[in-house]
Amino acid sequence: MKSDMLLVKAEVLPEVFQKVVLAKQLLNCKKAKSATEAAKICGISRSAFYKYRDAVFAYKELVDGSIVNLSAVLEDKAGVLSIFISALHEMKANILTINQGMPSGGVAQVTVSYRSNENVGNIAKVLERLSKIDGVITLEQVLGGV
C-alpha cells in the first residue's frame, strides 16, 4: 500500500520546510499581514512559501491531543460557568467551544469541547476536579471526541 504522507524529523529536512511552517503560524496568529510579509520575516521567498504551504505541516497541527467533549448541568447562579471554565484554563486545556442552553428550572445545560494535551492530565482527574465545583450538578464526558 502506497502512502502519500511521511513522518520525518525536522532536522533532516531542508530548512525551507521549517520556515514555511513558521510563516504559516505567523499568518494564523496575525503576526504577519500577508504571505509576502511572513515569507520575508522567515527568510524565504514568497514562491517557496506558496510552493510548500499546502504540503508541509507541523506534526502538532495534525495530531496534538485529542478533543474531549464534556456535558454538564450547572446551577443557574452567577459565576458557576466562569469558575468551571477557569478550572479548565488552570489545567491548561485549550478550550475550543462552549455552548450554554437557556437556564430553566434553576439549571443550565453546558457543553464544552477542549483539546487535551499532556498538561491537562487524564480525563478522570479532569472530571473529578470539575465535579467538585460548587454549582456543578452533573458532569460527564460525551462520546464522539476525536
Description of the molecule:
With 146 residues, the chain is an alpha+beta fold. The chain folds into two domains: 10-62; 67-142, Alpha-Beta Plaits, CATH 3.30.70. Helix content is 37%, strand content 22%. Strands 2-3-1-4 form a four-stranded antiparallel β-sheet, with helices on one face. Helix 2 crosses helix 3 (46-52).
As a whole number of angstroms, the C-alpha radius of gyration is: 21 Å
Terminal Cα separation, in Å? 25 Å
Helix residue percentage: 25-40%
Assembly type of the chains comes to single chain
Taken from the alpha-carbon principal axes, the silhouette is elongated
Which percent range describes the beta-strand content? 15-25%
Report low-confidence residues grouped into runs of 5 or more: none
Query: SS-based structural class?
Result: alpha+beta
Primary descriptors:
2 domains; four-stranded antiparallel β-sheet; Alpha-Beta Plaits; elongated
Question: What is the element layout, followed by pairings?
Answer:
Blueprint: H1 15-28, H2 35-42, H3 46-52, H4 59-63, E1 67-75, H5 80-90, E2 94-100, E3 107-115, H6 123-131, E4 136-142
Antiparallel strand pairs: 1-3, 1-4, 2-3
Helix pairs in contact: 1-2, 2-3
Summed up, what is this model?
With 146 residues, the chain is α+β, with helices and mostly antiparallel strands. 37% of the residues lie in helices and 22% in strands. The chain contains six helices and four strands.
